[in-house]
Design brief:
Blueprint lengths: L9 E12 L2 H8 L8 H14 L1 H4 L10 E9 L4 E12 L4 H19 L7 E11 L6 E2 L2
């Protein structure tokens, strides 16, 4: 791990997103809350939060962080059909939260896959990416 002991704490925010593409039948099942395993989108939000918090347990060189906030939003994409998940991770600290936001998105989307795979095993998880970050030595970043 990189030694961040001499760095001054700053406000850090990172937003990541990802998409899950699925069949119309699977999409309708999720939207109409008819999945056998329960409420898919609500469970995915909880999983995304849990994944964000557990990032240092999953990614070997990530520092354990005292997150001050995690926000999750899910956008329906009926034209795909599918969903886009956004995770925002926040803290005041010595290292960034990009990996936490990206891990949260990954775990949230995998949860959707798990809960709907009985209907559509061909779902695709796409475009997991950093949307923006604020704070730290490298400054701000905004995806174009």
């Amino acid at each position: 791990m990189v030694d961040v002991g001499s760095k001054e704490p700053t406000k850090r925010v990172a937003v990541a997103s990802g998409i899950i593409k699925m069949s119309q039948e699977a999409f309708n099942t999720v939207v109409n809350n008819k999945a056998k395993k329960g409420p898919v989108l609500q469970t995915a939000v909880i999983a995304a939060i849990q994944g964000t918090k557990k990032t240092p347990e999953l990614i070997p060189m990530c520092h354990p962080l005292l997150l001050t906030g995690i926000d999750c939003d899910i956008e329906e994409l009926p034209e795909l059909p599918g969903f886009k998940l956004y995770v925002t991770a926040k803290l005041n600290g010595k290292t960034g939260v990009e990996m936490e936001a990206l891990t949260g998105v990954s775990i949230g989307l995998l949860t959707i896959y798990d809960m709907v795979k009985a209907i559509d095993k061909g779902m695709q998880i796409l475009n997991i990416q950093l949307e923006s970050k604020e704070g730290g030595k490298s400054g701000n970043y905004q995806r174009q």
